[in-house]
Amino acid sequence: MKKIRLFFHSAGHYVLALFCGMVILLSAVWTKQTPSPAASPAQMNQSQRLSEITPSPAPELFQRPVGGPCIRPFLDDPVYFPEYKRYAFHPSADFSVTEGEKIYAAFDGTLRLEDEALYLEYDAFSLRYRGITPEKSSDGKQVRKGALLGTATGFVPYEGQNILCLTLYQNSTPVDISPFFAAKKER
What we know:
Number of domains: 2
Shape: elongated
Structural class: alpha+beta
Largest sheet: 8 strands, antiparallel
Low-confidence stretches: 33-43
CATH topology of the largest domain: Glucose Permease (Domain IIA)
CATH superfamily of the largest domain: Glucose Permease (Domain IIA)
Distance between the termini: 89 Å
Mean pLDDT: 77
CATH architecture of the largest domain: Distorted Sandwich
């Protein structure tokens, strides 16, 4: 027993290093998976998962509803809102507008009013506009891409001043709208 104790006292760190190396090697071999061309569902973000479920329309089917820049993009992660000093999820895109600016339909569809939002719906897609005063008798109205939907209110609750908040839903799940916009502005 004394010989074993002396051995580990003088060379124990080598034995420990060898043991750890064997454990790492065995765990690497044990968990090795065959590479697959597609990532697993756990590795995909929400937009990637939905694109595999539902084919997306071509980007030229959408147009930007306003001319202003996107000032807060769609994010899967919480966003810090300095006005409210808190983090919150923001599955929308915010665009810069001025009060009274005209807002247009991003694609063909049917309008629906709900709470303080206007929804443009077509097939698996629903686009929620917040910060808009809709044209009269908008509920249930069929519109074409580029049709005038209303004017900017200049304020969106919890978002701020001079903002149009757009949330695109695909099969009732929020998705990033930016890939759907055409490269050039249309009107």
